[in-house]
Design a protein that fits this description.
mainly alpha, 11 helices
Length: 215
């Protein structure tokens, strides 16, 4: 059973867990299982954050610039975001679907939305995007309140989506910040997310011990 599982995972992928386990193959398999359970548990809060972020940005910019704000000439900063929108429109056309704002917004990646709260959009944040989020007491946030923690959260989300190891990450910190940012974006979304969240039950009470490589 162990050897077959190792072959299914591939030697390169399993070697990371084997190293963390100090060469103990059963422990390595247990660590892989834990990685899988934690990835599953983080899916709900990460999904809710992504959905809340894109919908809040879309709602605020639609109010001021119309629902096709992403097509406004010279509005998006940098060619990459324009290419992301163009790729989505092209794919929808290939599938025979109209590129409605709802479909385009839903298909854009998390990187597109985290870029919207990046430094190049500081002026837009000051005039409009500040409306997307606020503290529970109603006080406003700076752009950096979101952009700082969103970068590692986006990377973690991508690692989970590609079935990569995440056990060496500070998962408790990123889990907390994922829920915190969701709360800033939408109290209702955060409360709903917390009602389904299983991260605390899955994360080991004694923490995660890994044998990390020196140097």
């Amino acid at each position: 059973m162990g050897e077959e599982l190792e072959q299914a995972l591939s030697l390169e992928r399993f070697s990371r867990y084997l190293s963390w386990a100090g060469g103990d193959r059963q422990k390595a398999i247990d660590l892989y299982a834990l990685n899988t359970r934690l990835s599953e548990a983080l899916y709900v809060p990460l999904q809710m954050l992504e959905v809340a972020l894109r919908n809040r940005v879309h709602a605020v910019l639609s109010d001021s610039k119309g629902s096709r704000w992403y097509e406004t000439p010279n509005f998006l900063v940098g060619r990459h975001q324009e290419e992301q929108v163009a790729a989505v429109v092209t794919e929808l056309s290939r599938l025979g679907k109209e590129a409605t704002p709802g479909r385009v917004v839903a298909a854009l990646t998390l990187s597109f939305w985290t870029t919207m709260v990046g430094k190049p959009y500081e002026d837009l944040w000051q005039t409009e995007l500040y409306q997307i989020a606020r503290h529970r007491d109603g006080k406003g946030l700076t752009r950096k309140h979101l952009s700082g923690p969103l970068t590692p959260i986006r990377i973690l989300r991508n690692r989970i989506a590609h079935h990569e190891p995440i056990l060496a990450w500070d998962l408790k910190k990123h889990h907390f910040m994922t829920l915190q940012i969701t709360e800033w974006l939408s109290l209702e979304a955060a409360d709903w997310c917390r009602s389904l969240d299983r991260f605390q039950q899955v994360f080991p009470s004694g923490g995660i011990t890994l044998k990390l490589e020196s140097g």
